[in-house]
Write a structure and sequence with these properties.
It is a single chain. By secondary structure, this protein is mainly α. It contains 17 helices and no strands. It starts with a helix and ends in a 6-residue tail after the last helix.
């Protein structure tokens, strides 16, 4: 089974990394067409979309992915469950759209004065209606492991975005307006394509039993997802409030670079999750290969993050417009924040299995979020963008410590999360120190850093786990 998980993981990772890699190259090109302030407006828009999309959908994507496994062997019930869930999701989003358009202007123009309500915030609200529906369907395809369909639909979605952004930003010179409008139109076109599949495969009804089941799970999951999202965007919010729109634009570039990593790590998580859930739903206790994959997952996350962190400053210096050069100072912190997400995903999966665990998970994420909130406020004032990135890194580390504790105390799972947490922390310190090397020749510097990191990260993995790397992948359930 491990080979199958790795095969799916690699496929998802390649697909998502390729699409996001192209998107990042486009965004790099866009730095020559937009000022840092205009990039800051894009960052503000993306921050709002991240938060509101969860509120609009009431975290319905989580319930669809979770209960798919319950009805996977009951085709007729599955059709009605999916039809009820998607229809209820869309209705919920429309209700929130009406509420926010009618009553949201005073609040949003007060919090985000740089974004005119009409048209920017109205466009953003429309995106928040369409995007949750589209992402829910892509998450469903991952749960079903329909790799072929996922590949071409995902490719179509991003091809639409690439084309629209190229036309609106480069050809038409619409800058940040073109970026936001491209997000809206690509989500609209993509939803039409998804509906063509859904009309053939599900039965659109509103069955009370399915809506109730889905709603109760998603509403219990909502606080967790909101807290997790606040943790992700709080640094950008404080940068906007305490620094400048231009500083936010620079910070967004560093986030875009790290986003490729987190998509790879999320793809690895999505690939192993169906196998984990299948074993859990079957009542079996044979998680040995899941444990093996988790260790492999963290090792890959650290290696990729280290390489990306070492090479990113050179990319920023020689590829991007010079006005974005300050992004190189924060990229290592942001990248390793995403490396910690590998352990975060593993433990959140476990802490989402029952309502009792979800409540505990929510508490842990809340505590981590409060720490993140306080640290960002203090460190941004003191250290600017570096303070924001460092505070976010510390916040996710503390959240992970709490989640690892929760899994250890409240479940019988035996993931080596604490050791892997230490492995990522020491790897961050190693990378941070290596990036201080100065040999007078940048090519030589990069080669030395990559070689030393490669050897040291493997030795560190062995030392922390007190085993050979191939042995650690053979963990057995007691």
């Amino acid at each position: 089974m491990l080979k199958k998980i790795i095969a799916f993981s690699t496929s998802y990772a390649i697909i998502e990394a390729l699409q996001k890699g192209i998107m990042f190259l486009l965004m790099s090109l866009f730095t020559y067409y937009m000022t840092t302030e205009e990039y800051g407006i894009i960052s503000s828009a993306l921050m709002i979309i991240q938060f509101l999309a969860i509120i609009f959908s009431l975290s319905a994507t989580a319930s669809i992915s979770r209960y798919y496994f319950k009805y996977a062997n009951k085709p007729e019930k599955l059709k009605e469950f999916l039809g009820s869930s998607f229809l209820f999701l869309f209705i919920t989003c429309l209700v929130f759209l009406g509420v926010f358009i009618l009553f949201g202007e005073p609040l949003f123009t007060w919090i985000f004065p740089e974004l005119p309500f009409n048209p920017y915030l109205i466009w953003i609200f429309l995106i928040c209606v369409l995007q949750p529906f589209n992402m829910a369907y892509l998450a469903l395809l991952k749960a079903q492991q329909k790799l072929k369909r996922y590949t071409y639909l995902y490719s179509i979605f991003y091809a639409l975005q690439f084309a629209l952004m190229g036309i609106t930003i480069i050809q038409k010179g619409m800058k940040h307006d073109g970026y936001i409008l491209s997000l809206l139109l690509s989500n609209l076109f993509f939803m039409v394509i998804i509906l063509l599949f859904l009309f053939k495969e599900v039965r659109f009804v509103l069955k009370r039993e399915f809506i109730s089941e889905s709603f109760h799970y998603s509403i219990s999951y909502l606080p967790t997802e909101l807290l997790a999202t606040i943790n992700i965007i709080v640094d950008r919010f404080y940068i906007l409030a305490l620094l400048t729109l231009s500083a936010l634009g620079v910070y967004q570039i560093a986030i875009q670079m790290g986003a490729i990593l987190v998509l790879i790590f999320r793809a690895l998580n999505y690939a192993y999750l169906p196998h984990f859930m299948s074993i859990y739903e079957s009542g079996k206790k044979d998680y040995g290969e899941i444990y093996r994959f988790a260790n492999f997952y963290v090792l890959i996350a650290v290696v990729l993050t280290g390489y990306a962190s070492i090479l990113s400053p050179y990319f920023i210096k020689y590829v991007l417009d010079e006005s974005y050069i300050a992004a190189k100072d924060v990229v290592v912190y942001i990248n390793f924040t995403y490396a910690f997400s590998s352990i975060y995903f593993i433990n959140v999966n476990i802490m989402s299995l029952t309502p009792k665990l979800v409540r505990a998970k929510t508490l842990f994420i809340f505590i981590g979020g409060m720490v993140n909130l306080g640290l960002n406020f203090i460190l941004i004032k003191q250290y600017g963008l570096v303070g924001a990135a460092l505070a976010t890194l510390m916040g996710i580390f503390i959240t992970n410590v709490l989640l690892v504790y929760g899994v250890k105390k409240k479940t019988n799972f035996e993931f080596k999360s604490l050791k892997n947490l230490l492995y990522i922390l020491f790897s961050f310190l190693l990378t941070f120190l290596l990036m201080k090397i100065s040999l007078g020749n940048e090519v030589l510097e990069a080669m030395v850093m990559l070689i030393v990191f490669s050897i040291s990260s493997i030795l560190l993995f062995c030392l922390i786990h007190q085993k050979h790397p191939m042995e650690i992948l053979k963990v057995k359930l007691k």
